Amino acid sequence: MKKIALLGREDREDVVFKQKFYYAKSAHYETATLKEIKLIPADYIMDEVREDYAAMKNMIYGAYPDFDSILTYLDELEDEIHNL
């Protein structure tokens, strides 16, 4: 995830290309800055994401983290990225 946050020039150009040629109304690339990027799903969809993760557990090999641990990690990572 940190590598994604620190995209190189070529990667940023890919994002611009996607924004131009594969427009998605729900995508807000202009706010995808290091200070504004969100890694945690919005509250209105959190229950669905939690249910989806629970449904996918059988697809994960070996030990897998519980959903709340993932959210905690993403919250810490988001703070770290915002402070770059």
Automatic annotation (TrEMBL):
UniProt protein name: Nucleotidyl transferase AbiEii toxin, Type IV TA system
UniProt source species: Butyrivibrio fibrisolvens DSM 3071
